[in-house]
Structure formats: structure tokens, C-alpha cells
Amino acid sequence: MAVPTRVEFYFDTMCPFAYHTSRWIREVRAMGLVEVEWRFFSLEEINRKTDQPHAWERETTWGWTPLRVAAWLRRIDPRLCDDWYRVAGRALHEEGRRPYERDTAEELLAEIGAPPETWREALADPSTHDDVRREHDTAVGVHGGFGVPMLVFPNGRPVFGPVVIPVPEGDAARRLWDQCVAFADAEGLWEIKRPKTTADIDMIKGYFDSYLTAREWKTVQRPAP
Q: Quick check: helix, strand or coil at residue 40?
């Protein structure tokens, strides 16, 4: 596979791992190695219990609502969607703020220069449900997705991850990109995973302090198929 110039990055603003990986892919993008197309994935939906309503059946949710805002912004300008994920992720995962609450969201939207009616219009438009649901269904039904971050390369191969903390920069970021490209090109290679030691888990928890303070949900992990 030639070095890709484009990658689809599936995210949910709820996920701290996806946020830190998004910081890495932005570093890779800044090097001119790739263009990123942001795609939507719902942890609330993939982890939904059968007796719970779907995310699109609720007025607002922790993850689905910010994705609807992202979908509305992407129609106007993909750069606004990009910026929204950047500031919403930063708010939750670095500052301990809740981008799914209207006041916080509107402050963040003003920061990126989004139209002042964004929050209201995105939530009043039922077709933003359709946009998020369509891409989530593609992630699960076409690519076998079970969580985020997930990259889909031009050859159609999805890669779960990379799950990387702390975020590599410079040459380290470039090397990780090369490794991901090689992984996606390796026929028959399904999984490489490094076990986490107690020290590793403690280190990761330190990066998650703000997120753990702000979140109002319990972590649910869907096992990999």
C-alpha cells in the first residue's frame, strides 16, 4: 500500500483514548503526511443494554449530542467539525468541563467561531441523528468496529487504535504513523497488543484525572470480537 494521503478517524468525544490519539493524528497531519476525515461512532449505542432507549431516542446524551453538533458543523465547513472535536475533547479530557452541557458547549462553539445558533439548530434538526447513526452503523456493520479510536485506511482496512498515552511528538509520531500504515497493509495480521502493568495503569490514570472528574457515566467496555 502506498503511503496514504487520507484516513478516516472514528471518534466519540466521550472517549479519552480517542482524544489522545486524535492529538497524535493532528501532529502527523501537521507534518503533511495525511489528511483526516472525522467520522462518528457512539459508545452509548455500542454499549446500550437491550432495555435502554437508543441514543437518538433521548433528548440529550453525553456523547451522541456532541456528535450531532459535529455533524451539523461538518455540513457548513469540515474545519469547524475538526475544531469542535479539538476544543470539546480538550474541555472534557484536559479541563474537566462538560461539552455536552449547553452553556459549556456554546462557550466552546464561540471559541472556534461557529455560528451562534449552532447548538440550537443542530439539536432541532432530526437529520443530525441520521448522520451520526449512518456513520456509526458503517463503523460497526462494514468495518466490525467495537470502540474508538478507529482508523480506516484507503485500502478499506480498519485499525482499532493506536491507543497511545502519552502522545508522541515529532519523529516518534512519524514512526508510529509508519507502523500503523504497515499494520494496515499486513495481510492476515489482526492484533498486536502490549499488556499493561500496574505502573502503566497508574500512569494512564494520571492523564485521565480531568476526564474522571467531569464524566457522569461509568466506563463500559465492549470486548473485541
A: strand
Domains of the chain: 6-214 (3.40.30.10)
Could you report the per-residue pLDDT of 55-69, keeping only the tens digit for each? 999 989 999 999 999
> What's the DSSP call for residue 166?
S
**pLDDT at position 224:** 64
Checking if the pLDDT of 107 tops 90, the result is yes
Q: 63, exposed or middle or buried, with CB in 10 Å at 0-12, 13-18, 19+?
A: buried
Buried b (16+ CB within 10 A) or exposed e, 30-46: eeebbebebbbbbbbbb
Give SS3 for 159.
strand
Per-residue model confidence as pLDDT tens digits over 190-213? 998 999 999 999 999 999 999 999
Encode 90-126: b = buried (16+ Cβ within 10 Å), e = exposed.
bbbbbeebbbbbeebbeebbeebebeeebbeebbeee
DSSP codes of every residue in 207-224: HTHHHHHH--S----PPP
The upper half-sphere exposure of residue 17, i.e. CA atoms within 13 Å in the direction of its Cβ, equals: 14
